[in-house]
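Do me a favour: review this protein, sequence plus structure tokens, and tell me how the chain folds. Record follows.
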Amino acid sequence: KAIMPYLLEKYGKNESLYPKDIKQRAIIDRALMFNAITFTPKVYGVLLPRLAKNEVSEEAEKEFKEKAMDKLNRDLEGKQFIAGDNLTIADFAFWGLITLLGLFDIDTSPWSNICSWAERMKALPYYEECHKELFEFWEEMKKVES
């Protein structure tokens, strides 16, 4: 995720994904730090055991809910996207993990702000094209497992 700002600085033409405004960048950077330091490890704490067909510990489940999902849901309160009302690289950083939760059939309905944000992400014009191969691969993996 640290590569995202670099790539946008070097090659990006759309400044809205990582604006030059220092205040807006600070908001985005804070979200990226939360994603890297807390959200990602807590999500993997519930995904990796499922992938290995193991039970998820109560502690991992609790931390996933309280430290990851509850916080992200609060952070999205009153916002269209992670860092405000515009799509930024922070949204893409979180989106990959939220997509994985869906693939593992983890219910995100208790977090209404996350669900609303996810619908906005799915409405992006390139959503289907970008996810087509992932969803096809996942369906093939499920067939192999059964």
The chain has one domain: 3-145. The longest helix spans residues 22-51.
